[in-house]
């Protein structure tokens, strides 16, 4: 095959199968076949030898040809176009009109892509299927109690929730249930319509400052960071392998909770402990909920009609897990969660920031092990521990109305911790253009929003109490006319951010 024919062939194969290649494979082939870079130039760009570049190209070419041998997408498209041309040659105007419609449908199919956003937990699997790039939600749902006696599978079909109880042995079975349901309920005609899966990964360590296509290197980084997110990272990898087996032709992207916070400076992410701990054990502030903070900050800029690069924001993701982030010009400069999700503001069952000496003190007084103390701080503290009523803000509010002193104290303590962090971030930012509430409590608890904003009056924060009281789970500006800071309620949409990154990184 002459070089020109070889280039045309490879470009056709890349158009059909590039989503199945790793990021490095796509980059090298694009530079070689589309941008006409030399092996030496590619090697310099990728920091590998000329021989290694040549090896990458040959193995990638072989892989593309293997995909075509099995799937025949290029051959079928060529054959379809050949038949179109033969029919056109008959010069029948009516038939040609139908051919034009079919060609336009082919073009539309080439531009529309189905992407699944996935959030895998140790015993659950949340999902949302999007039509991209129009960002239309086709379905969503959750598979719960995976590995337990009675699993529950819930999926939304034509706007209605359909649930069934069944034994769900593992995540592989859960994914198969989902795939079968998508076809059964005619959400997709063929599973091959799904071109990409975006996986929520909690911890990427300090290696990744953005989402990335999953390859062996990414898998290893997620494994290495599992000590920092033992409940989430292993589950994320289990979900990845299950979907990879179910949809072998689809591309996969990891979207890290920690990525958005990697723009923090060392004055924000380092702890005042021996630097050896950071160098040897990577002890630092990583933060969580980054995808949520990124989404609501970008959406806030859009709603305000302003370029986010000009804005100073504080975003409050308040739910059973809670974190607050300072954002300057669209970039995180500080966030409240730390090495783990235990740090920061008070949460549903997590204590947030405490004097670290408490741990040793309680161990001596009670004889508890470090594992037992860790369990109490993560599972029996926060709103639950102080109120002795519940970790659910709705239960706390009801108890407050009944005069329960523990619930009232828990609420006051919760608000106090939030305003302490917001006040500190206000000073670090050097001012504030927007304060954003999101998350289960932030979106739905008008009382907490009111208490927080009233306490922040010294910073120029003022809300319209009537609008705030009537606002629940909808995008709305809450600030009053005389407020120096715009206050917004913006429901988060982490699944959409995952779908956007997946669509972008897979080049669809």
Characterize this entry briefly:
With 508 residues, this protein is of the alpha/beta class. It has 21 helices and 14 strands. The chain has helices spanning 3-17, 23-34, 39-46, 50-71, 73-88, 93-111, 171-184, 216-224, 233-246, 266-269, 275-281, 290-304, 357-366, 370-379, 382-387, 393-401, 405-429, 439-444, 446-455, 465-469, 494-505, and strands spanning 113-120, 125-132, 136-144, 151-157, 160-166, 194-201, 212-213, 251-256, 312-318, 322-328, 331-335, 434-438, 476-477, 486-489.
Strand order of the largest sheet: 5-4-3-2-1-6-8-7
Q: What sort of overall outline do the alpha carbons produce when their principal axes are compared?
A: globular
**Rg from alpha-carbon coordinates:** 26 Å
Instruction: Tell me how many strands there are.
Output: 14
In words, what does this structure look like?
49% of the residues lie in helices and 17% in strands. It has 21 helices and 14 strands. The longest helix is centred in the C-terminal third of the chain and has 25 residues. The two termini are 29 Å apart.
How are the elements arranged and paired?
Elements lengths: L2 H15 L5 H12 L4 H8 L3 H22 L1 H16 L4 H19 L1 E8 L4 E8 L3 E9 L6 E7 L2 E7 L4 H14 L9 E8 L10 E2 L2 H9 L8 H14 L4 E6 L9 H4 L5 H7 L8 H15 L7 E7 L3 E7 L2 E5 L21 H10 L3 H10 L2 H6 L5 H9 L3 H25 L4 E5 H6 L1 H10 L9 H5 L6 E2 L8 E4 L4 H12 L3
Features:
alpha/beta; eight-stranded mixed beta sheet; six-stranded mixed beta sheet
């Amino acid at each position: 095959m002459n070089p020109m024919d070889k280039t045309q062939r490879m470009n056709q194969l890349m158009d059909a199968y590039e989503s199945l290649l790793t990021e490095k494979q796509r980059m090298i082939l694009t530079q070689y076949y589309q941008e006409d870079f030399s092996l030496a130039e590619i090697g310099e760009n990728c920091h590998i030898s000329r021989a290694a570049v040549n090896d990458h190209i040959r193995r990638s070419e072989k892989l593309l040809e293997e995909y075509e041998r099995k799937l025949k997408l290029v051959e079928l498209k060529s054959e379809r176009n050949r038949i179109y041309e033969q029919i056109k040659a008959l010069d029948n105007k009516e038939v040609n009109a139908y051919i034009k419609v079919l060609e336009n449908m082919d073009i539309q199919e080439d531009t529309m892509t189905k992407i699944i956003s996935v959030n895998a937990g140790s015993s659950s699997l949340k999902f949302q299927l999007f039509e991209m790039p129009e960002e239309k939600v086709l379905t969503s749902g959750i598979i719960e109690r995976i590995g337990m006696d009675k699993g529950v599978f819930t999926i939304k079909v034509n706007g209605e929730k359909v649930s069934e109880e069944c034994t769900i042995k593992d995540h592989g079975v859960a994914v198969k249930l989902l795939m079968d349901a998508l076809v059964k309920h005619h959400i997709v005609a063929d599973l091959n319509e799904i071109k990409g899966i975006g996986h929520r990964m909690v911890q990427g360590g300090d290696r990744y400052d953005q989402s990335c296509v999953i390859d062996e290197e990414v898998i290893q980084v997620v494994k290495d960071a599992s000590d920092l997110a033992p409940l989430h990272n292993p589950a994320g990898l289990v979900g990845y392998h299950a979907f990879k087996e179910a949809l072998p032709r689809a591309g996969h992207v990891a979207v890290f909770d920690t990525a958005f916070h990697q723009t923090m400076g060392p004055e924000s992410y380092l702890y005042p402990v021996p630097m050896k701990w950071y160098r040897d054990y990577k002890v630092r502030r990583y933060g969580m909920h980054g995808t949520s903070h990124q989404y609501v900050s970008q959406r806030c800029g859009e709603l305000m009609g302003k370029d986010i690069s000009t804005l100073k924001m504080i975003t409050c993701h308040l739910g059973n897990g809670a974190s607050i982030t300072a954002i300057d010009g669209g970039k995180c400069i500080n966030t409240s969660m730390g090495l783990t999700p235990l740090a920061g503001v008070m949460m549903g069952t997590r204590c947030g920031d405490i004097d670290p000496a408490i741990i040793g003190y309680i161990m001596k007084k009670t004889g508890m092990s470090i594992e037992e103390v860790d369990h109490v701080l993560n599972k029996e503290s926060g709103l639950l521990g102080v109120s002795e009523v519940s970790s659910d803000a709705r239960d706390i509010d009801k108890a407050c109305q009944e005069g329960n002193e523990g619930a009232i104290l828990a609420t006051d303590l919760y608000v106090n911790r939030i305003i302490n962090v917001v006040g500190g971030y206000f000073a670090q930012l050097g001012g504030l253009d927007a304060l954003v509430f999101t998350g289960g409590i932030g979106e739905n608890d008008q009382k907490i929003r009111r208490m927080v904003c009233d306490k922040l009056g010294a910073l120029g924060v003022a809300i319209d109490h009537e609008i705030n009281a009537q606002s629940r789970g909808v995008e709305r500006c809450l600030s009053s006319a005389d407020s120096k800071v715009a206050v917004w309620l913006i429901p988060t949409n982490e699944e959409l951010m995952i779908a956007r990154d997946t669509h972008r990184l897979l080049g669809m």
